[in-house]
Amino acid sequence: MTTTAEPTAPGAPRAGGELRALTGLRIVAAVWVMLFHFHFTALPGVAGVVEVVGPLLTAGALGVDLFFVLSGFVIAYTYLEKMGPALRAGSATRFVWARACRMWPAYVVVFNLFGLWIGARLLFGSDDQIAFQGVQPVVSVGAWLEQLLMVHLWDHAFFDGASWVGSTWSISAEWLAYVLFPVAVVVFYRLRNMPPPLLALGALALMGPMAWAYLSEGSPYFPWSWMVRILCGFSAGVLTYLVVRRMTATVRIRRAASLIATITPFLIAAGLCLGELVGPGRGGAVIALFPVLVGSLALADRGVARALSTRWSVHGGRISYSLYLVHIPIFEVYWLAMAYFPALWQPTVTAHVIGGAVVLVTFPVAHGLHRWIEEPARLRMRGWFGARRPRPAAEVAADSDPVTRALRTIAVGAGAPAPRTAAAAAVRPHPVAAAQAWAAAQAVAATRAAAAARPGRPAVCAPAALFTPSHRRRAAAVTGEQEMLPPAPRRPRHATTRTTTPTFAAAIAAAAAIESRQRRPAHRTWAQAGS
User: Fold this and answer.
1) Residue 452: C-alpha distances to residues 441, 459, 483 (Å)
2) How much is the average pLDDT of 377-405?
3) 517 pLDDT exceeds 80?
4) Cβ neighbours around 426 below 10 Å, total
């Protein structure tokens, strides 16, 4: 997708960059679902809130569909260009494994811990109810294995009772979408050049079956409705991305997208309330606006997009998956405690404070799960399959420096096998020269790190210091009056053959020339002298 020269605007889609507004939208969807589940709590205050806000709370199950559209958009944004041209076993395997690394670690911890809770209720409970679900889940080794592999919903026409943790039916549904994506992306890739209006109509049409179910029945609940929800919602998200990638993010486009992103939530809220006047659940037809909301937020840079791009919103979006996982187990424990301790559901201030604390405690628990389980386990699992782990910012910054990169390349080249021909020997760096190159790279990095702590001072290392022995090396700033000629490297005493280092000197000069253009004009003198 083409963008203007404003790549850092919040929410602006950038190749390889995070769509912060969409990340912030995830916490909105997760909280919406969580409050929907909490509204079943038998507290007088909760019933009073439901009477006031009505469908804004009771329609919170739509947050799951918003997640599906979001997932389709973000997955297409990340993988469409990489995987689209053709179906390849390697790329498909890496994609599925990457998604498993993202979903599985936190999920397997939560569902196994809650499985112990269900087992305890099964063994020591006074009735057959082991979970607060309309249909009780099956407790068996086979059910455990299906949930371990996240396929527990695939052979169920309805999601009731399919999961020990009630809300994790959608995890199994989304896992199905990820497994099918490597095949579907080949088709989506060939649609990328279609006219954007036609793609937009396709995205809206895909939301049509669920919107019609709400309009006609007031509920999206029919056999295999979960499959319609995930496949249509996910595909609508992919088509929404295909529309966005064809748009040039000019200032005018971003302003219009910001306006649409600000208006759409009010339209959704108004549609939910007006739909209740027609009939129970009819307002759920606003599900058709979810692709509009996601696509506009991807292009917007102000208004709601700016609010969703703040540090706290983005962090909330990053822990939203963990929040989605932990809130039902926490609520289940609380609801069972209410059955044994009547004081918890009495119309007292204490009971309502405890209820509010139960809702709030889900956030630090989700944060802990994300920080100590989800992210570390994801990185470790990615390493098992040979994927590269994210490098520290300091290493990335060091490698982006031209001098350091050139010197490190020379140092690494010194470890190559001994040359077999005279021509190869002429260009192979001398071992001592390679060692000096590595020391020089460290000197550059250390000098600039020290200079970064002194704003206003030149962050440049004196070239002469690069070849000074370590006990005499001293970082210094280069000025136009200083001598910039590096002394020639010494020949090692143990050398048995004559080895010249013209390539080494030329690389130093070239690297200095690059840096002189990027960093300080003062380096030109050194570059010209070294060449």
Assistant:
1) 17, 7, 24
2) 64
3) no
4) 13
pLDDT tens-digit profile of 462-508? Answer: 434 344 444 444 443 333 333 333 444 455 454 444 444 445 555 56
Residue 352 has pLDDT above 80, yes or no: yes
In contact, 79 and 92? CB cutoff 8 Å? no
pLDDT tens for residues 219-240?
A: 888 999 999 999 999 999 999 9
Tokens of 54: 């009505």
Say how far apart CA 137 and CA 52 lie, in whole Å.
Answer: 34
Measured CA to CA, the distance from residue 410 to residue 402 in angstroms comes to 13
pLDDT for the residue numbered 125: 86
Q: Which residues pair with 249 in a beta bridge?
A: 3
48-51 long-range contacts (CB < 8 A, ≥24 apart) are none
How many other C-beta atoms lie within 10 A of the C-beta of residue 357?
10
Do 164 and 137 meet the contact criterion of CB atoms below 8 Å apart? yes
* CA-closest candidate to residue 132, choices 361, 336, 338: 336
Instruction: Look at residue 426 and tell me whether its pLDDT is greater than 60.
Output: no
**3 forms bridges with which residues in the sheet?**
249
CA 298 to mean position of chain CA atoms = 14
Phi, psi (deg, nearest 5) at residue 454: -125, 85
User: Three-state SS for 249?
Assistant: strand
The tokens of 382 are what? 């990615």
DSSP 414-481: TTSPPPSSHHHHHHSPPHHHHHHHHHHHHHHHHHHHHHHTSTTS-----HHHHTS-TTT-------TT
